[in-house]
Amino acid sequence: KQAFARRGQLKMNARLDGLDVTLITAEGAIASFDVRDCSVRMVQSSKGSINAEGEFGSIGVRDLTASFDVHAQPVSYRRCSSLGEDCSRLNSSHESKQDGWALHMADGDGAEVRLSVCLTNLRIVYVQRFIIILKKYLSALRDELEPVLAIKGGISDVFDAESDDSWKAMSGSSSRLQLDIIAEDVDVIMPRHSQSPHEALRFCVGR
Which helix (H) or strand (E) element contains residue 159? Predict the structure, then answer.
């Protein structure tokens, strides 16, 4: 904070055109994640408060083990403005909002943290089998990385050195979180069975 107080504001603008991640096991690929047209804008004041905002052009999750095409994309999202549609809406303060997210963190203990998220055109296909596969993969990955994280003088020391003070500060803080989520045109599909493409529950939330 002292460094920021002497130098003033910290501003950051970042943009990521595309990111693809594929999860692979000994039996083959199980899932892929892709993010397109991601941007982040952040300003940190000399006193430590943070204001950040950004958006994603699209987010996709693919189940590469799915038996049917209708189950192959558990999560898909495309920003409304990228579709050429009018996706503006009014929030509780009667301000126009577009798809994206915004974060405000005030300085000082007890300060309020506000996170706002606006999403349109979100589709979710919930298949429990895919969730179990992901859990097993992440559990195995954690076990494999444990010896590396335990090496003295390595990554673990960096986390240990920072975790004590930062964790105590976070756990002792009385900050309140205000979460504002606006989701429209949401389509949630819950198949009855992963081996049946014909039976499912469907929930649609429109405007």
Answer: helix 155-172
Residues whose CB falls within 8 Å of the CB of residue 179, separated by 6 or more in sequence, listed in order: 115, 117
Model pLDDT, residue 93: 46
Ranges of H-type helices in 81-154: 128-149
Per the CB < 8 A criterion, the answer to whether 54 and 168 are in contact is: no
Q: SS3 for 83? A: helix
Strands 75-78 and 89-90: unpaired
- Segment 156-197, tens digit of pLDDT: 555 555 445 544 554 455 567 888 888 888 999 999 888 888
| Confidence category of residue 198, pLDDT binned at 50, 70, 90 | confident
Three-state DSSP at 80 gives helix
Half-sphere exposure in the Cβ direction for 83 (13 Å, CA): 15
Q: Degrees (nearest 5) of the Cα angle 82, 101, 56?
A: 35
User: 37 — phi, psi (to 5°)?
Assistant: 55, 60
Q: How many CB atoms lie within 10 A of CB 149?
A: 12
The verdict on pTM exceeding 0.85 is: no
Q: How much is the pLDDT for 22?
A: 96
* Chain mean position to CA 145: 23
Nearest to 134 by CA among 25, 19, 20: 25
